[in-house]
Input
Amino acid sequence: MLVAILPGDGIGPEVVAEAVRVLQALDLGLSFEEAPVGGAAYKAHGHPLPAATLDLARRADAILFGAVGDPDCDALDRALRPEQAILGLRRELGLFANLRPAKAFAEMVDASALKPEIAASIDLLIVRELTGDVYFGTPRGRRQTDAGLREGYDMMRYDEAEVARIARTGFEAARKRRGRLCSVDKANVLETSQLWRDVVIEVSGDYPDVTLDHMYVDNAAMQLVRNPGAFDVIVTGNLFGDILSDQASMCVGSIGLLPSASLDAAGKGLYEPIHGSAPDIAGQGKANPLATILSAAMMLRYSLGRPEAADQVEAAVANALAAGARTADLGGSLRTREMGDRVLAAL
Ligand code: IPM
Ligand code: MG
Output
């Protein structure tokens, strides 16, 4: 099976290298092909998502993605910014279902921003819709108001098919877990959210075994800090899911720990850490590779049909943490490569 390797910008190449080492160590006969993406691709080829990179992503059985984002590119036209690479891949490949699990590691609760007993209770899955919402709505742009003021505008929109599809992903996931689904919206203010809520309720008729409740996003942000253990599966839109997943990561201990899978309707997927390119520490060997290594484990489980290998990788990460392996984000001093070594040793 072919795995596309898209390291991207900033710390992307460093963390992806460790995940590739882990995949190679498993000796599963995978082949790897690398291509540039993001600011790195813009600098080399004039576009953040070159045609050859998109072609590789289409051909591959799964995609391992690092991160995109480069301050050198901040002044570029939006269509050429590094972020357009990941947004383009999500859109072009129809990767609508973003799974972002957040689970406490017993030995890591001291790194959480929360009290240890609260942090220890976290075992949730955020199911984020990934190809709609204000991220992709049109029209969007800049104009002058009648009063001569500069104005920026974006369109938040969902249609019922998009909502029903991600709702089903959420219900299916809840069914395999603790049977509870919390749909997060802002139906008290937004029409998009009222449609979201109506459709989620309609779909719930097919899942009588799953307990559904609804929460406004502001309340959900508060409950994630107050009592995160109460959540099982959260299903939400693109923008709210982006924000809540960063928040959930710090509840677990570090944004350097959270993996993600972005899946299409057939289960093909792109796998990436939820963190960004962290230009401030890029190239210094300080980044935590665990989120990317755990993303590779999700790839083994969801796209490569190797759940037992996924379990092995996840156990190796847990064992390395249990043995005290800590990068700087976790209050330690291990370098990126050394953390990779610890995981390989545990494997
Ligand atoms: C993420 C990131 C992206 C997003 C950016 C890089 C476009 O924050 O994957 O969470 O907003 O979806
Ligand atoms: Mg984000």
Remarks:
- The longest helix spans residues 160-176.
- The pocket of magnesium ion (ligand 2) is lined by residues 242, 246 (CB under 6 Å).
